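Hypothesis: this fold can be encoded by more than one sequence.
Test: take the structure tokens below, design a sequence, compare later.
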């Protein structure tokens, strides 16, 4: 089947990008637009003008920089869909976030999570959890301690918050975590979770006792802290949260979480030259509640999973969402106080 000629709009954008040293082909630009990473070409121009508007060019440059050298666009694509906030972009976003949440089940061959409180259903979920963990290695990296060690070498002491979990991927937490994802709070008792935490943080008995006291007070008040967590319904509950979210609420949650992640990554990049940045970031409670468990995201699929989990928490936990909004203000203040204005493209960018 013969290809159609590139549209005048696509060719105009290619020419505009070349002025910045960025040289995508018309075919690439067409693909970006089909994926929803660029808006409808009808919106690219001012009425009666043949020149592509600057904000469209800047968005195309962001896409070009992200997908160059064969890399996927990752959560940047989600951010662009969320920023558009249209019914079509919200549907793309909903489909992608749900797929990311379900990916551990898909990899394990679990088409449907067994439901119910029978012994048979419970054992089936345990078996599914075991399949999810098969062949997976627990990362040994403790990002928090790595940063502290580097800071100590430079003669800088970083703040340490009480009750911090040093490594959420500790081997002792992997099995309880998988079972929590499948069966929710009903499949994981408080004592079992505490026993796992004791193995993960053997040098912090105060934290364990604090958890026991908090749980006791909650029981006396007739509440269950774990059941109130966004994780309490497992992956099925998280999927329902995203599937039933209002379009605008979903776009707002993803936009906020991706902007926060982008800001954190940029500040972390600057922190070796500006130690005050990392001191301020680590001295805030959201360093433990968000940054090291879901804000500092790796590239690829794990990064998408982190943003998906953050999105669910933003949608279901208003207090956490408000704290993330506040932390974003802290990061903005740090960005203003420690500015950097590099050329965003460098030299000779090739798409």
């Amino acid at each position: 089947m013969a290809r159609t000629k590139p549209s005048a709009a696509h060719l105009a954008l290619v020419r505009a990008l070349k002025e910045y040293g960025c040289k995508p082909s018309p075919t690439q630009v067409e693909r970006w637009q089909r994926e929803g990473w660029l808006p409808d070409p009808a919106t690219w121009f001012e009425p009666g003008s043949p020149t592509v508007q600057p904000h469209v060019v800047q968005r195309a440059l962001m896409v070009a920089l992200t997908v160059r050298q064969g890399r996927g666009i990752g959560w940047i694509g989600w951010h662009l869909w969320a920023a558009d906030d249209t019914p079509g972009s919200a549907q793309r976003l909903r489909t992608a976030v749900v797929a990311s949440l379900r990916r551990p089940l898909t990899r394990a061959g679990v088409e449907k999570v067994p439901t119910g409180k029978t012994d048979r259903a419970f054992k089936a979920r345990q078996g599914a959890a075991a399949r999810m963990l098969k062949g997976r290695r627990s990362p040994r990296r403790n990002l928090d301690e790595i940063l502290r060690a580097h800071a100590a070498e430079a003669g800088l002491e970083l703040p340490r918050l009480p009750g911090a979990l040093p490594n959420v991927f500790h081997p002792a937490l992997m099995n309880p975590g998988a079972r929590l994802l499948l069966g929710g709070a009903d499949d994981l008792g408080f004592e079992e979770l505490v026993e796992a935490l004791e193995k993960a943080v053997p040098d912090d008995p105060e934290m364990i006792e604090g958890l026991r006291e908090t749980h006791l007070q909650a029981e006396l008040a007739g509440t269950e802290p774990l059941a109130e967590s966004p994780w309490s319904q497992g992956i099925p509950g998280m999927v329902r949260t995203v599937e039933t979210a209002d379009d605008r609420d979903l776009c707002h949650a993803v936009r906020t979480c991706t902007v926060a992640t982008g800001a954190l990554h940029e500040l972390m990049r600057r922190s070796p030259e500006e130690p005050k940045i990392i001191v301020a970031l680590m001295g805030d409670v959201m360093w433990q509640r968000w940054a090291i468990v879901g804000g500092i995201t790796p590239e690829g699929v794990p990064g998408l999973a982190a943003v998906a989990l953050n999105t669910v928490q933003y949608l279901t936990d208003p207090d956490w969402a408000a704290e993330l909004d506040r932390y974003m203000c802290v990061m903005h203040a740090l960005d203003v106080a420690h500015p950097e204005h590099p050329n965003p493209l460098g030299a000779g960018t090739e798409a």
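Residues 343-351 have pLDDT under 50 and may be disordered. The first helix runs from residue 8 to 18.
Hypothesis status: open.
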